[in-house]
Design goal:
Chain A is mostly helical. Chain A is 67% helix and 0% strand. Chain A has 15 helices and no strands. In chain A, helix 4 crosses helix 8. The longest helix of chain A is centred in the middle third of the chain and has 32 residues. The termini of chain A are close together. The N terminus of chain A is likely disordered. By secondary structure, chain B is mostly helical. The chains are: A mainly alpha, B mainly alpha. At the A-B interface, helix 1, helix 4, helix 5, helix 6 and helix 10 of A face helix 1, helix 3, helix 4, helix 5 and helix 6 of B.
Chain lengths: 290, 317
């Protein structure tokens, strides 16, 4: 189990008069940081500019006459309203995340703390499934969804994602570190397996659960290829699908595009800025384990 | 609960035995409730599709047509005579080769710089990670407008500096590098954080010892930092290759001109995943698309195994 160390031991740099090297480093990193956030800045100010100002040269760095028209325009696009797409995305992402957390913890608990015939073989099989690329399963899955009559519904976005090999792996690794004595004590006190699961395993797994939640939610919020294949009806669009309708349009509505992109970016960005350490360490942790 | 009556044994023994069997049935029940749906789900949505996909690649499989006549290796032979597929395969590798080495070097340099940046370490780490958590489709769309030839921000900046403007995504030679550059911006923070975690975990004692022995910082980088980052490096390379060879979203969003199909201009950004999508879900040639999926899978698997072997040996000190 790889853990991310939080407090790094500092390099013991003896304090001299003025640290020019560090100042240069800050300037270098500062320029890079500006480059990382500049596209977002450009998008936000563009979404508040009037159509005339959007195409002005040289570009303005602050909207001269801020307007909300692009944002309001998002609710009356020719294929629907972004309020609806936002709701759809929130519904799918939250549902899948909640269910994946539940199933991953249950299965992870069983693989970590129960003995049964064929357990290790089954677990290795699950790990091996992570090697199956989506390029192979996407076409047969699509054909299955057609057979089930599930196209143009949310079932294909939710049901096949209910169990995550990666989530099970992550939770099993984490739950292994919960001491057996704790579970045995609860058993002696007469707790049922479900009781132990809900009252001991889940409360003790919050660190891993929050990492898995962030990872799953971002992956779902970002998911594009599968929804693109399975959903045609605009009323069911998630945000990435709705955004892709803006792609390569020759009749430019840059302001509208900027506002629409921000609908996808801003909610995650706000949560990220409040819980950035959780995000970074969660994603790095899930990344390293995966 | 089969144990009902055991007339000859004493009372406490019965209750103990009963309690044991209760616990056992309860445990079995729990295992069944957890594992049966899990196995069912994996068989139906993971294993069966893989088998059906592999089988389908040998058949004339068309959407909405229940007949799947066996055609043997026909699709595979056709693939290697399909100029667009060969172009897509080449583009996929070119994309990976442009994006991966650059992203690893930039991420490593940034991670080293951030580690040494003292008080501002947290701020920089947070900022460089922002593109990673934001939506791929949204940022790809934003970038395609930054690249826009007549009023995109990049050309406006070039014009202000009196430099020649570029056509970026509209050019057959610049489109793929432009998308690779976007991917570098989008994903660099992730690689950087993996390296940063690796660097932070290195024991300072090694550096102190090296300094006592008179090593300069360049020497300790090659002698200590890089070798000890081996696990992070292997992870970054393997996941990077897998991700780059399967790239879809950014190409789909950024490569289209007008209402055209993705992969343009003139197939210069056509990659395997995009061509597979076009063939399977536009032309409804599910068999042909499945064959592409299998080819890509074999390539990815071979490269992954090769990297695990090669990198372990190369960096074993």
């Amino acid at each position: 189990m790889t853990t991310v160390t939080t407090a790094p031991p500092k390099l013991s740099v003896p304090r001299k008069k003025f640290n020019w090297q560090r100042l240069l480093l800050w300037i270098f990193l500062g320029l890079g940081a500006i480059f990382m956030v500049a596209p977002f800045y450009w998008t936000i100010i563009t979404s508040f500019k009037s159509p005339a100002e959007v195409s002005q040269f040289p570009p303005t760095w602050w909207p001269a006459d801020p307007t909300l028209e692009h944002w309001i325009g998002l609710t009356e696009l020719r294929f629907g309203s972004f309020a609806m797409f936002f709701r759809n995305s929130v519904f799918v992402s939250f549902t899948v995340t909640a269910l994946v957390l539940l199933t991953s913890t249950m299965c992870g608990y069983v693989f970590a703390k129960h003995k049964f015939v064929g357990r290790d073989a089954l677990f290795i099989g699950i790990l091996a499934m992570m090697m199956i690329p989506f390029n192979i399963s996407i076409i047969p899955l699509y054909a299955m969804m057609v057979d089930f009559g599930w196209t143009n519904s949310y079932w294909p976005l939710i049901i096949p994602s209910l169990y995550s090999p990666f989530g099970i792996f992550l939770m099993r690794q984490f739950i292994q570190s919960i001491p057996d004595e704790l579970l045995d004590a609860a058993r002696i006190d007469g707790a049922s397996e479900f009781g132990i699961f809900f009252r001991i395993v889940i409360p003790l797994s919050t660190a891993a659960l929050s990492a898995l939640a962030i990872f799953t939610f971002i992956a779902q919020w970002d998911d594009f290829l599968w929804p693109l294949v399975i959903i045609d009806e605009a009323r069911l669009y998630t945000i990435p699908l709705a955004l892709s309708r803006f792609r390569g349009r020759t009749t430019m509505d840059v302001g509208g595009l900027a506002a629409a992109s921000m609908v996808a970016v801003i909610p995650v960005l706000i949560v990220y800025l409040f819980a950035q350490r959780r995000f970074i360490e969660g994603i790095a942790m899930t990344g390293i384990k995966g | 609960m089969a144990v009902a009556q055991e007339p000859t044994t004493a009372a406490p023994a019965v209750s103990l035995r009963q309690r044991f069997s209760n616990e056992k049935t309860q445990k079995t029940l729990f295992l069944l409730v957890v594992l049966v749906p899990m196995i069912l789900s994996f068989v139906v949505f993971w294993i069966y599709p893989m088998i059906r996909g592999a089988y389908g690649s040998f058949t004339l499989w068309r959407a909405f047509d229940p007949n799947m006549p066996w055609v043997g290796l026909k699709h595979y032979k056709a693939l290697f005579h399909d100029p667009i597929f060969m172009r897509a395969l080449r583009n996929t590798f070119v994309y990976a080769l442009m994006y991966l080495p650059a992203s690893i070097i930039v991420a490593l340099v940034t991670a080293l710089a951030i580690e040494a940046s003292g008080a501002l370490r947290g701020l920089f780490r947070t900022t460089y990670f922002i593109p990673v958590v934001t939506s791929t489709i949204a940022t790809a769309l934003i970038w395609s407008y930054l690249y826009q030839p007549s009023f995109g921000l990049f050309n406006q900046i070039l014009e202000l500096l009196h430099l020649p403007t570029q056509s970026f995504l509209k050019s057959t030679t610049q489109a793929l590098p432009s998308i690779a550059f976007y991917a570098l911006w989008k994903n660099m923070g992730f690689t950087m954080v993996i390296f940063l975690a690796g660097i932070t975990a290195i024991d300072r004692v090694y550096y102190e010892a090296a300094r006592v022995d008179g090593a300069n910082s360049w020497q300790s980088f090659w002698g200590i930092t890089l070798p000890l980052l081996q696990p992070a490096m292997i992870f970054v390379l393997i996941t990077g290759v897998i991700g780059a060879l399967q790239v879809f979203g950014p190409i789909y969003v950024m490569s289209a001109g007008g209402d055209g199909l993705p992969g343009g201009p003139a197939n210069s950004t056509m990659v395997v995943s995009v061509y597979q999508w076009l063939m399977a879900f536009r032309e409804l040639e599910l068999g042909y698309g499945s064959a592409m999926g299998i080819v890509l899978f074999v390539i990815i698997l071979a490269l992954t195994l090769f990297q695990i072997r090669f990198l372990r040996r190369r960096w074993d000190y």
